[in-house]
Structures are given as structure tokens and as C-alpha cells.
Hints:
By secondary structure, the chain is an alpha/beta fold. It has helices spanning 31-37, 54-58, 79-88, 106-115, 132-138, and strands at residues 11-13, 43-45, 68-70, 94-96, 121-123, 146-148. Strand 1, helix 1 (31-37) and strand 2 form a beta-alpha-beta unit.
Amino acid sequence: MYVCIHALLSSLFFxxxxxxxxxxxxxxxxxAAIAKNAPNLxxxxxxxxxxxxKSLKTxxxxxxxxxxxxxxxxxxxxxxxxxxxxxxxxxxxxxxLSDCVKGVTGVSMDAFGTYCLNxxxxxLARCHNLDGxxxxxxxKCAKLEKLDLNSCTNLTDMR
Length: 159
């Protein structure tokens, strides 16, 4: 499989593209190829691409112009990978990490709150590892207009 991507492309939707690899062959068809050949991407939707993890930190984080990112259902993504995305994609305005059960933790949310100062929308539905530290990280997002925490079962009013 060969994916042709144009450098002027601004949006890319790979919803539930199960064969998108994390590491193996990524230079040809994976995240590395996308990051290299479409440096001006502003909107990326990899929802349901459950295999993605390490390439989020190594390649997606190189997409410096990203404004909107949807990783809903990327269940293999870890907090370290997501923190790498936050460090690299500082212009993010909209972020969906619903069902990223491994990756949405205090570590990753603190990174998004620290590095992504333009975040206006954060959707974290069904992220069961989100806790008070994660909320403290999100609280750093001064421009936040919408926060979806539906079914985040680990949240309490205790610190």
C-alpha cells in the first residue's frame, strides 16, 4: 500500500484505518510518511487507529502546525506518547482523546496544560485513568471553552 500525500494538504482523516502501523513500515505508509510529506497539516483525525503509540511521540509531534487533533479510540497510546504530542504540537486548539484509556493521565494532561496554551476544546470522555492531577494540568488552559469529561469514572472531589 502506498499513500501519496501533498505538501499543501491541510486536513487528513484516517478514521478507523486499522492497518495504519505504529512502527513497522511507518516510513512508507505510517505516521512518519505523513509528517514528512504533509508538514502543513492543521487538522488530523486518527480516531479508531488503535495501534498508534510510539509514532505519536516520534512523528505526530513533528506536525508543528496542528490546530485540531482527534485520537479517539487510540487505545494503545500511552501518557508518554501523548506528552510528546503536547510538547511538539503547541498550537493545538482542539483535542479529542476520548477512549484513550492508557494515555490520559496526570502526566499527559499536565503536558497539554503546560505546552498547548491555545487549547479551547478538550474531549476526554471515558478516560478512566484521568484523576485530580490531570484536572490540575487541564486547569492551566486559560483559553478553554469546552471540556467533556463524560464517564471519567476515576474523578472525585478529593485530591
